[in-house]
Amino acid sequence: MTTAAEKAPAVSKEQADAIFSRGLEGIIAGETAVCSIEQGGLWYRGYEIHDLAKHATFEEVAHVLLVGHKPSASELAAFKAELIAERPLPGVVTAFIESMGGFLASGRAVPMDILRSCVSMLGHMDPDSQSVEKDANLRKAKRLLAKIPTMIGHMQNVIDGKAIIERERGGDPTLGHAANLLYLMTGSKPAKEYAHVVDVSLILYAEHDFNASTFTSRVIAGTLSDMHGAICGGIAALKGPLHGGANEMAMEMLKEIMKDVGEKAIGTKAVDDWMQKAFDTKRKLMGFGHRVYKNGDHRAPILHKLGRDVAQSDTKNPGGHAAVKWFELGEQVQKIMLEKKNIHPNVDFPCGMTYFTMGIPVPQYTPIFVASRVSGWAAHIIEQHANNRIIRPLSRYIGEAPRKW
After folding, report:
1. Which helix (DSSP H) or strand (DSSP E) does residue 272 occupy?
2. What's the topology of domain 246-357?
3. Is there a catalytic annotation at residue 290?
4. What tens digit of pLDDT does each residue of 265-288 get?
5. Which residues contact 17 (CB under 8 A, 6 or more apart)?
6. CA angle 258–262–267, rounded 5-degree value
7. Could you say which of 208, 304, 348, 385 is catalytic?
8. Which entry of 50, 113, 196, 243 is annotated as an active-site residue?
9. What is the pTM of this model?
10. pLDDT digits (tens, 9 = 90+) for 124-152
């Protein structure tokens, strides 16, 4: 079938040169029905993010993204049952994770690397691995959605030097997606409050238009490559500190400030001085700014409030009420950034503080992002395969003029 895009006249090199934009900023590179980002809001297939965060569960949101509509009660029950059934990992994948303990301990490998390799391994074993048909893609998407939290949990067990939790079942079938992820990582059933916060964070991270990792996945899918390969590309793109790794780097920055100025300096000029030095040395401060949002990330205040509530609660979190200090510091840093640079925090900034308050290891922040964003990636891969045209932009040549050998 020839699409309208394929019938459209080709853009000349001269026309393309006239609309050149570094990093493709402001360039529309395709169409999607999955997500819409505007200055005034964020929508997943027409559902606004505050509405979803308040009223939906992550499993419902994943169904909306992957299947295309809000599930009925029976559809949701069937969807959850499929995910629970697909949680266990093949033995060879679990064995691989166990074999990587020394590399993780030495820092030669990080959790995102292991996660990428595990997804690649699953591609060799999936019965639908080579198909790009819609039904096959949906089956693969559900399997990956179910198995990635298991990978993260098993990996954390190895890092902690503990026995693999729920090796055979991939978790507790009575627990939802977010709660089971926390259980697999810690071996303890999470408090309802913790499970809710992680569930909302997964909703907020599930999808975000043509961001770097999603666009990477679509470029790979555009060659008619397979779901697992495209997801591996998405993971590789998300690993970078300018994308998904920003939540880890944001928390590391706050820890550095706390170490340099001391807890008693929160709210004082010492923090302002630290920030001014960072400005003067042109240091990149992670967790701030966004290519699309210029007036603030709509997701950030949602997660900030939930995280602060956890820090202030009486639940037995790692810092007790003392965990509030991270939010007090974070709020001062936000204020300075807004007053001096007019730059708002993005969702990665409160994510770092929130996960840290709940005791989640910093190197697992971005893998947890993957546990969520795989739903959005897969939705885009399915959409790309369904109405495909290979993604092949032009470039502006800035090299040597033509010359003789």
Report:
1. helix 269-280
2. Cytochrome p450-Terp; domain 2 (1.10.230)
3. yes
4. 899 999 999 999 999 999 988 888
5. 396
6. 85
7. 348
8. 243
9. 0.90
10. 999 999 999 999 999 999 999 999 999 99
